[in-house]
Design a protein that fits this description.
333 residues, alpha/beta, Metallo-beta-lactamase, Chain A, 2 domains, ten-stranded mixed beta sheet, seven-stranded mixed beta sheet, 9 helices, disordered N terminus
Length: 333
């Protein structure tokens, strides 16, 4: 019975709408593949689509019927397998990929779907794309015909919050970015190549030093992902490691001051990151607490608290109890 209740709560959480004045970042559970939702200010970007059309059901559950930017990090099936279905069932305004063709039926079907949809095609280049109030800085890949090492990188920036998405980048591309791009410390990293041994280096982990490292991976996959050594590397730099095969969809709700809430579909727990201001040396420290312990991620000066956000007094709150607080209440109450 309790398992059924937890599943119902997870389904209800998956369908929750975007919180006001927050960046929403969801790493969807699509098995052995990637699919990431980025939403802010009524605008939506999707990065990768898993390997099948099933991703459309998840997007529809989130109320997504228009995608402002659809990104293929690279053209392997576990990243673009659902693209044709998305393009055929959703209004897509821009489609961006690495510009490296692939000789597969899936790739040919995807490119034809882009043409048929009327979406404007973009090739990865050094540019910054605005999604609501968030900025997506494109990290173009190095010259290469290898799909993994031609993955499109994205640095998501929202005020003081940073997240880094790197597709299936291997050692060659990570080294290229470290040598040719400014890679900052970030709060969230999408671990490259599903946690494979050649998708993380000590230098990459030390440079980014995230609070959270997300591994998008399929349960009992034949590749042995993720590597135990990779998990240890991220834990050594202080990251909390989340895996979609064990925890389902991983969701991040970030505020402009760099604080954020992380949740998982198979857990009722909420982690609230309270980030201290940057020190002069650029270091960033944080502490964790539970919402039940009195931590507020948002104080509602207008409307009322609902989950992790504020809603109109006239609306009925249908979200799980989160870390938002009414202004009239003390955070310790």
């Amino acid at each position: 019975m309790f398992r059924a209740i937890r599943i119902a709560l997870a389904v209800a959480f998956l369908s929750l709408p975007l919180r006001a004045e927050q960046l929403e970042l969801r790493f969807l559970d699509v098995g052995q593949g990637d699919a990431i939702v980025i939403r802010e200010g009524g605008k939506t970007a999707i990065v990768d689509s898993g390997r099948s059309a099933n991703v459309v059901v998840q997007l529809q559950a989130l109320g997504i019927d228009t995608i402002d930017l659809l990104v293929a990090s690279h053209n392997h099936t576990d990243h673009i397998g659902g693209m044709a279905a998305i393009l055929g069932n959703t209004e897509v305004r821009y489609y961006l990929d690495n510009g490296v063709p692939h000789r597969t039926v899936t790739y040919q079907r995807t490119i034809q779907a882009v043409v048929d949809s009327g979406a404007q095609y973009l090739r990865a280049s050094s540019r910054t794309i605005t999604v609501g109030s968030a900025q997506l800085r494109v990290l173009p890949p190095p010259p290469s015909r290898d799909q993994n090492n031609s993955s499109v990188g994205l640095l998501v920036q929202y005020g003081e919050f940073r997240a880094l998405l790197t597709g299936d980048s291997d050692l060659y591309e990570l080294r290229y970015w470290l040598n040719n791009q400014t890679i900052p410390r970030v709060q969230v990293v999408k671990v490259a190549h599903h946690g494979s041994r050649n998708g993380t280096t000590a230098e990459w982990a030390e440079t980014t030093r995230p609070d959270v490292a997300v591994i998008s991976v399929g349960a009992r996959n034949s590749y042995g992902h993720p590597s135990p050594g990779v998990i240890e590397q991220w834990q050594r730099v202080g990251a909390r490691v989340h895996r979609t095969d064990l925890e389902g969809t991983i969701s991040i709700f970030a505020n402009r001051d760099g604080t954020f809430v992380e949740t998982t579909a198979r857990s009722e727990a909420w982690q609230v990151a309270k980030v201290r201001p940057h020190e002069k040396n650029g270091s960033l420290s944080f502490s964790l607490s539970s919402p039940a312990g009195g931590a507020c991620c948002k104080i509602c000066t207008h409307g009322k608290a609902c989950g992790n956000s504020c809603i109109s007094q006239a609306y009925t709150c249908r979200q799980l109890t989160g870390c938002a607080c009414d202004a009239r209440q003390s955070p310790s109450e």
